[in-house]
Write a structure and sequence with these properties.
Strand 1 (5-11), helix 1 and strand 2 form a beta-alpha-beta unit. 42% of the residues are buried. The protein is an alpha/beta fold and 319 residues long. The strands form three sheets. A five-stranded mixed β-sheet has the order 2-1-3-10-4, with helices on both faces. The protein has a five-stranded mixed β-sheet with strand order 7-6-8-5-9, with helices on both faces. It is built from ten helices and 13 strands. Helix 9 (235-250) runs parallel beside helix 10. It has helices at 14-30, 44-47, 53-58, 67-74, 138-147, 160-168, 179-183, 221-228, 235-250, 298-312; strands spanning 5-11, 35-41, 80-84, 96-101, 109-113, 132-134, 152-154, 174-178, 193-196, 212-217, 259-265, 273-281, 286-294.
């Protein structure tokens, strides 16, 4: 490898910087002589906190949390962009490529509660009727409604600290967040009650939730593939992520679509995996759930994803 200095790009939030620091540490473990510089920036999604994701997309803002980073890559202002993979659009701009890195963190959603208000609440299912749940996710709102129609989902935008401040001020009784993001800022865990949600019985995660990714210029593939090879997740994790992202791409589903996808192998020794998906049909207000087994190869993984897409396509919103 011939590169000695790398400019990492990330969003300005504390969580995004923690994720970039984690990737930087992995890089320097693999390449001890590598010098790193981190550049932070604010994205469209960070600046427009009053608009919903659906509104931002309707205004022409695709990739609301990544566009500025991708522009910096294309202009060579940064070398690598660090992302939470669940925030990545289904299609990348021409000239860019992306790979998952590191181990997959807990993919579940988590219910964040004020411990003084809900000291004994064990799950989403045991919240008092009428509880107000803050979420910016169409997926989470649809799945909550399916299991607890008596709960009230309210929109909330902003970074993690902003959302927690709104919770402490009493705007909500609880927040639904990706547990992985909350876990990446451990200093917050002692202040709040974190109730993980079962992926299947309560909330199935978003595609690739819990996974970090690194994006770079396609014409620098050779050098960066070598650099990032030690950071690749285990093969079965790669297969699961590929399956989940393939469903997302096949359905052309953005963050405004209530789509959940989760693939897993029951154990390290399992000879096959299971790809699960659920989508909310806005026209009927119904959820449609499907699953497909797949063998541990990329070809079989993509075949399973295509089968899932074929079953869910009739219920996906048109572009």
């Amino acid at each position: 490898m011939t590169i000695n200095n790398i400019r990492l790009g990330t969003r300005h939030s504390a969580l995004a910087q923690a994720q970039a620091h984690r990737v930087g540490a992995m890089l320097q473990t693999a390449w001890p002589m590598l010098a790193l510089e981190t550049k932070t920036m604010t994205t469209v999604g960070d600046r427009n906190l009053e608009a919903s994701f659906r509104e931002l997309v309707s205004q022409g803002h695709a990739g609301v949390f990544v566009k500025e980073l991708e522009t910096s890559l294309l202009s060579r202002d940064i070398d690598l962009a660090v992302h939470s993979l669940k925030d990545m659009p289904s299609v990348q701009p021409q000239g860019l490529m992306m790979i998952p890195v590191g181990l997959r963190d807990d993919p579940r959603d988590a219910l964040i509660l004020n411990p003084d208000s809900f000291p004994d609440t064990a799950s989403l299912l045991s919240l008092p009727s009428g509880s107000r749940i803050g979420t910016a996710s169409a997926r989470r709102a649809a799945l909550v409604s399916a299991v607890r129609k008596d709960l009230i989902c309210l929109p909330v935008r902003g970074n993690l600290q902003t959302r927690l401040r709104k919770l402490s001020e009493g705007h909500f009784d609880g927040l639904l967040l990706a547990k992985a993001g909350f876990d990446r800022l451990p200093e917050l865990s002692s202040q709040w009650r974190v109730v993980p949600c079962c992926p299947y019985h309560e909330l199935m995660p978003a595609p690739a939730q819990g996974m970090l990714a690194v994006e770079f210029l396609e014409n620098r593939d050779k050098v960066f593939s070598e650099m990032l090879a030690p950071l690749l997740p285990p093969l079965k994790t790669q297969l699961c992520i590929a399956a989940e992202r393939a469903v997302l791409t096949g359905l052309s589903a953005g963050c405004h679509v209530a789509l959940a996808v989760y693939a897993e192998f029951a154990s390290e020794d399992a000879e096959s995996g299971t790809l699960n998906a659920v989508i909310h049909d806005n026209s009927t207000d119904k959820l449609y759930r499907v699953s497909q087994c797949f063998e541990p190869s990329f070809e079989a993984t993509l075949d399973a994803a295509r089968a899932i897409v074929a079953q869910l396509k009739p219920y996906a919103p048109s572009a």
